[in-house]
Structure formats: structure tokens, C-alpha cells
UniProtKB/TrEMBL annotation:
It comes from Formimonas warabiya. Residues 23-42 bind DNA. Keywords: DNA-binding. It comes from the Bacteria. Transmembrane segments: none annotated. Residues 1-60 form the HTH tetR-type domain. This is HTH tetR-type domain-containing protein. The lineage of its organism: Bacteria, Bacillati, Bacillota, Clostridia, Eubacteriales.
Length: 194
């Protein structure tokens, strides 16, 4: 229980202050324990940070499998892609601290963890592409729903769409980004459909 409270407090402080700005003493204070007690649960701030990162990575990997099961029940390629699109922005919108932590870690990882984190993020993206995107795009082209083209062009376009969502939700108010997200989707779909 204390371990989970520590991780929750640390997540909040990593989001607010970044890795370098989040101090172990602040994390301990946030959960009303002494700094030495925190070290009973986590060997170092680095280990705490990595556990939060790997917990989140594990959840995101599990969500790939869940999304795959869900979209495989859908008949339409458009529905499948739209689900992946909306599922992503619902996650980004619904888990603010987790989203900001993920974003900050992806863009500005602690320098001594940069290689390790980038490797994990690349592995995650490759899994997302292999399990979700590539099969849907290939199916769409085989069914003549999507324009025939290199599947990698479609994947890069979709990932670019996700990057736009990632930024838009962070900077805009809900009413503004909802409209923009609708327009982004319509433009993307119109550009790939036959």
C-alpha cells in the first residue's frame, strides 16, 4: 500500500518537476514518511522512476492486446481505425498525469536513462504497429477500402496523427481540441480511403 502511494506521489512530482526537479524528500513528504523509509521501498529515485515507467509501459502493452481483440470484432476498416484513433485520445485525455509522464519521458528522458527508455519506446511502437496498424491497413487495401500504397506510408501518417493528438490535448481546451480532433480524423480518412 505504501509502495503504491509512493509511486502515485512520485508520478505527480515527476510530472510537475521532471526527473531532475523531483526530490526524494518531497516524495517522502507527500506520503508522510521519512526519506529513509522511502529507501526501504525503493533503492533509489532512478529505480522508482523506472518502476513507474515500466508499470505504464506494461499497461500500454496490455492495452494493445485488448484493442486488438476489440477491433477484430469489427467489420469495417474505418471503424477499426477510428476506434484506434479515439481510444488513443481517450487514454491521453483520461490519464493526465500518466500522459504527461509518458510524454515528458519520451521527449526528455533523464540523460543517463535515455538509451534504455528510447529502446523501450521503439519496442512499444513496433508492437503497436505490428499488432494493430499494419494488419488493419493491409486488410483495408486488400478489401479495396483504402488506396493501394506502401503500408509504411499509412503507418507513418497514422503515427503522425497520433503525435498531433498528443500535442493538441496538452495545449488546448477540451471544446477546442474535440473539434480539431474531428477535423484531423476526417482529413486523414479522406486522404487514405478509395
Amino acid at each position: 500500500m505504501t509502495r503504491d502511494k509512493i509511486k502515485k506521489a512520485a508520478l505527480s512530482l515527476f510530472v510537475k518537476n521532471g526527473y531532475e526537479g523531483a526530490h526524494v524528500a518531497e516524495i517522502a513528504k507527500a506520503v508522510n514518511i521519512k526519506t529513509a523509509s522511502l529507501y526501504f521501498h525503493f533503492e533509489s529515485k532512478e529505480k522508482l522512476f523506472l518502476e513507474i515507467f515500466y508499470d505504464l509501459l506494461h499497461e500500454k502493452l496490455k492495452s494493445i492486446e485488448a484493442a486488438n481483440e476489440f477491433i477484430n470484432q469489427m467489420d469495417s476498416v474505418q471503424e477499426q481505425l477510428f476506434f484506434l484513433y479515439t481510444d488513443y485520445y481517450k487514454w491521453v485525455d483520461g490519464y493526465q498525469d500518466e500522459m504527461v509522464f509518458w510524454k515528458r519521458t519520451a521527449l526528455f528522458p533523464p540523460s543517463f536513462l535515455e538509451d534504455q527508455i528510447r529502446k523501450e519506446l521503439i519496442t512499444y511502437e513496433q508492437r503497436y504497429v505490428a499488432v494493430l496498424l499494419e494488419p488493419v491497413f493491409l486488410k483495408g487495401m486488400a478489401l479495396h477500402v483504402l488506396k493501394d500504397q506502401d503500408v509504411n506510408r499509412l503507418i507513418v501518417g497514422f503515427l503522425g496523427l497520433m503525435a498531433a493528438v498528443f500535442s493538441e490535448i496538452h495545449y488546448s481546451e477540451p471544446a477546442v481540441y474535440q473539434k480539431k480532433l474531428e477535423i484531423l480524423w476526417e482529413n486523414f480518412w479522406d486522404s487514405i480511403k478509395k
